[in-house]
């Protein structure tokens, strides 16, 4: 395991070695998954939740035992819903002795920081945010493998204790995730860009479909499905998440609105050159998203295959694709209405598409570009 | 094969039976694919293209023969780039005898109609638009199966000859596609909604990534990839397509801009209730997209499976999924940076998820919700 390029250095003290106990406050999907990962690593885990039956369920899953009054956790992980975060982090700091550190896993980092400002133990809090979905479905959905290979932001404020940062870094690695060190404000601007504003824009597009004529929507292809997919998420949860990051979201959304005005002007005036340049700017943006496994972005080429729409055919396709030795980087199944034969798109790294296409054709599949 | 609910009725004359020859003007992906589908059905196909080598290539693929001066096509299919459509349709009508009908396959239907307005043979033109991708890659990428099960809009104007509409309907069915009858203006408003505005919005989101800090983009998950995927398309082609549909796009984009102002206001003022209601409106919109095969929208549930990222594992997964008897409706592979184990999401119809999950767990897979 390699050290993060901008990670903390371990001092000579033992304070930065995660030995437990770890207390998990909030035994939903994220909290219980962290608890399971800690148990998997042999740490003692203490469980706390406003709902006693959640603690019982999580205990029953082997995620730890209910916290007792006299327990002294080394690290408290606060994993409660966004609106309850600030108070729960303060409460954890209130209860913490001198050897207890606190983190949280909320999707926004500025707001909880404001909540601990001025607290005498504030230096022993360092925020974090695992990029592992936002489902909110209780301990039964938890899994120790939830964070495998995921980015997990660690966001020490000025004046945060290096020991606190080191313990959170150790927790992230123990969960199998990849630490990404960012100042709290940078984190919130980053997720506004990679998550909150995209969600709002997807929601705006999806809103244009509500109440549209069904024979118009019959022309829907894969594009509109991709663009609007995230907008299917729980409005109550996302209004909490986005509502906790209003400054960064409003700033970026204001920029987007200005650019939308340029697009609208170019469309109204039939300015093809302006329109093409705005579209080219967007195309360049799609290439800025990091490639798989954090590597440089790679050019993917789709190989399209007609596949009968019943169980077993996909297995046959992937068996034949696997035999070609070409790695499939992404898959899409085409859902166009009325399609008795599915169209499956296999994305592969440029240069390997022809190998895959020939391998599939030789086994009787019909492919096209 | 069933008749379309709002399709043409065949008269006693033979004019509405597609017997050929079919002339294809423009032997790119779409044109050559139509030619191949017609040849597959045993029709004579005549090929025309400004680029003589494209005609030779298409002929070599078995798509038909070059048109000769004395040939009299029954149906001319104009399949040239958007900006060349109007002139090419007029030219086809100029050359058409009394028994020749004309259609086109352009992505916008109002503009070509304007181009034929007042032409003495205008009644013998009926526009159409297959929903089969917008790649623009020449005859070599063509495939007779390109249109299998796809929606294909047919857009007769007022005063269009029923025989012309019937011939286009016959062509659509011969290509294996599903006819969707719409007035031209309705079609253009429909694709503004299902394709052009979503494309522009995706491009705006993608534009916010251009030039962003790489350590911020390290937090990118699957959501931002889904939202921006279509923005990777060719800016030159999309500026032509959208530039030919400015009225419908500007109208809808103006609506979206107004709603964006509401979102921005709700974010700036921290109005959670307003934000949640705007998000709920978007969520409702995602449910308006027709389900697979044109059926009622179905609720899909994701089953998430951890999969080692190398060839063969996907095949094993789909073999095990296939053995469960549960049909996989959609697939996504998670690309989060740094992930050594891929996360595959299998979407299945609600109620079958538990069956699939148990089947996969019993074969050693780790699943989570």
From TrEMBL, chains A, B:
Pathway: Amino-acid biosynthesis
InterPro entries in the cross-refs: 6-PGluconate_DH-like_C_sf, ACT-like_dom_sf, NAD(P)-bd_dom_sf, PDH_C, PDH_N, Preph/Arog_dehydrog, Prephen_DH
Coiled-coil residue windows: none
Residue stretches making up the Prephenate/arogenate dehydrogenase domain: 20-297
GO BP field: tyrosine biosynthetic process
Family matches, as PROSITE patterns: PDH_ADH
GO molecular function, one term: prephenate dehydrogenase (NADP+) activity
Keywords of this entry: Amino-acid biosynthesis, Aromatic amino acid biosynthesis, Oxidoreductase
Gene3D superfamilies in the record: 6-phosphogluconate dehydrogenase C-terminal like domain, NAD(P)-binding Rossmann-like Domain
Source species, domain of life: Bacteria
Signal peptide annotation: none
The enzyme's E.C. designation: 1.3.1.12
Matching Pfam families: PDH_C, PDH_N
Family: Belongs to the prephenate/arogenate dehydrogenase family.
Protein name in UniProt: Prephenate dehydrogenase
